[in-house]
Design a protein that fits this description.
Strand order of the largest sheet of chain B: 7-11-6-1-4-5-12
Radius of gyration of chain B: 23 Å
Number of helices of chain A: 7
CATH superfamily of the largest domain in chain A: HUPs
Helix content of chain B: 25-40%
CATH class of the largest domain in chain A: Alpha Beta
Distance between the termini of chain A: 58 Å
Bound molecules: flavin-adenine dinucleotide, adenosine monophosphate
Oligomer: heterodimer
Number of domains of chain B: 2
CATH superfamily of the largest domain in chain B: HUPs
Number of strands of chain B: 18
Order of helices and strands of chain A: EEEEEHEHEHEHEEEEHEEEHH
CATH topology of the largest domain in chain B: Rossmann fold
Structural class of chain A: alpha/beta
Largest sheet of chain B: 7 strands, parallel
CATH topology of the largest domain in chain A: Rossmann fold
Radius of gyration of chain A: 24 Å
Number of domains of chain A: 2
CATH architecture of the largest domain in chain A: 3-Layer(aba) Sandwich
CATH class of the largest domain in chain B: Alpha Beta
Shape of chain B: globular
CATH architecture of the largest domain in chain B: 3-Layer(aba) Sandwich
Strand content of chain A: 25-35%
Strand order of the largest sheet of chain A: 11-10-9-12-8-1-6-7-13
Number of strands of chain A: 15
Amino acid sequence: MHIVVCIKQVPDSAQIRVHPVTNTIMRQGVPAIVNPYDLFSLEAALRLKDVHGGRITVISMGPPQAEIALKKCIAYGADEAILVTDRAFAGADTLATSFALAQAIRQIEKDMKVDMVFAGKQTIDGDTAQVGPGIAKRLNLQLLTYVAQIDAIDLEKNTIQVRRRAENGVQVLQTRLPCLITMLEGSNDMRYATMENMFRAARYATKIWNKDAAGIEDVNKIGLKGSPTLVSKVFAPKPLARRADIIDTESNDPRDIALTLVNKLFTQHPKLHDSLRSH
Amino acid sequence: MTQTPERNASPKKAGRGNFELDEHLKAYQGIWVFIEHEQGEVHPVSWELLGEGRKLADKLGVSLSGVVMGAAGLPTRRFCEESFFYGADNCYLVEDPVLANYRNEPFTRGMTDLVNRYKPEILLLGATTQGRDLAGSVATTLETGLTADCTELNIDPDNRGLAATRPTFGGSLLCTIITKNYRPQMATVRPRVMSMPERDTSRSGSIVEHSLGMIETEIVTKVLSFIPDDTQDKPQLPFADIIVSGGRGMKKPENFQLIWSLAKVLGAEVGATRPVVQAGWAELDRQVGQSGKTVRPKLYIAAGISGAIQHRVGMEGADVIIAINNDPNAPIFDFAHYGIVGNAMTILPVLTEIFKQQLAVARKAG
Ligand SMILES: Cc1cc2nc3c(=O)[nH]c(=O)nc-3n(C[C@H](O)[C@H](O)[C@H](O)COP(=O)(O)OP(=O)(O)OC[C@H]3O[C@@H](n4cnc5c(N)ncnc54)[C@H](O)[C@@H]3O)c2cc1C
Ligand SMILES: Nc1ncnc2c1ncn2[C@@H]1O[C@H](COP(=O)(O)O)[C@@H](O)[C@H]1O
């Protein structure tokens, strides 16, 4: 079985700071990591390989340094890694990104038939959850998003059964391969990299594809040109004009403070008082 | 590279290019809202979107339509009628046995066929597991722009285009995204980000029926079953009237009991910040904020919460916010309505007691 996993290198957003004066992002020193949601998908793919054998190819579109993220995936146990990188991709939105990745997956398929594609539920920087469904549509793969569990896979019949999170329940879905899956967070725990795989990753020569190698001829479909959406402005959230009415009493006794607060609340918000009272 | 606005991560306007619409795109008119339903119930985000869509439609002077897809046996006509109550002028209805449960393939086909036939300029969907699944496929099929998880929607007076604002970079900044020379302009919005419009039962509208023309054997994916969540145990934060939330300032999981006690007296749901959820003091379903739930209660009490932007975006829509924090400079006091500067461990038990007394008195008084 051949599984392609799409991963993205993202800045660790927990560590991003905004410059208080210029409102620009301070990226210096912010570590780049594999998009955390992608790891649930990679682990799901690794588990399928543990049981059924086969090959896992990880693919990423991004700047040259994204190779580090791909090598991390090799250390976790992926077999091959491809970095699709080209100046012409700059400024891509989700439509252009899914086009480029879908074309690259078509190229991968020339080497070995692809049975499944995994993508993350969403990225922590783009945060759109659109690239996965976009790739599925372009490659005409059955789409299974928000998968909590893969119940069964039958490689003879080419069928798969999964549990997909819906709004107020779980859908049990059956479909045929090839398909594209995005895994739900928390659906598994990423394994530790083995010593052997870490050594392999260190030596591994990532395949670097430019747009031609990725089989992209139409430059109108990639990068800024291929992107219907455009960021027209970036700004900091408006500070609210209000400042809390700080409840203070001379006695500084918690009881007095609490009583003052509750009385204020009930007099200034009679409707709230009514609904609390009728509870 | 996905909508990463670092190229122009500054507050000034970026070069906006030429947005003269192609002649054939000028035929795209009107605003549509996908009416999402599951197990016979419409997701309230659809009504919230109709409320927002109404404002956009009025600004543009165009009509607002709902889109209902489903199978005979589901109350699809009632859904259409409800959409009129919440502001739609008309409703497109696609009814077919293959649409009995949500599945990507037939719903994508239904929506793209409708768009190609009736040409709306804006299409809004909820940022739910269903809406996002569908939106990504529809936008790719139509090869148009889609902006995810918007927090604000506006019409650009210069070009009548949709200006969709969403958080970026982990919520520390906002960016406004426009769709160039492509139609329809698509956007998703999370539940509770927009307020619920008034339900006006005197409104009515017309239903436009459209047939799907698919047969079950063409559709590869089958729904074997649906296992409903046990709603009794599941916290229902997004629609709670009162929420008492605790943050890292509660220090220990045992102290979180104080949050529960106050919640009980008020008939409230319990919420939490992300660090609290990560520490395992509260379930994931209780997380309020950018990567958790958006809530709009009448009253939100925050104890031991600093008020980081990622938390604030999930709860600033509350009518009244009370903050308890021992640091007078905590950012939460910049947007709370009432504040108590003090130790939550001493304040909470007293506050619980006082609320209990005062409510008992009020109930007696009738
Ligand atoms: C991409 C991303 C997404 C995120 N999503 C979310 C999200 O959805 N929801 C969310 O909540 N966070 C989210 N965060 C995290 C967020 O940035 C903050 O770290 C988090 O909200 C802080 O939680 P807190 O207020 O509980 O803790 P802290 O920031 O540590 O604040 C604790 C507060 O308690 C006060 N305190 C201490 N002791 C006491 C006491 N005895 N009595 C009273 N007060 C006391 C302190 O003064 C302090 O203000 C996200 C972050 C990122 C990067
Ligand atoms: N540049 C990229 N390279 C590889 N995979 C990507 C890229 N962008 C997005 N993806 C995949 O698509 C998923 C959803 O991304 P997004 O639509 O940006 O939230 C991610 O979790 C990745 O699996």
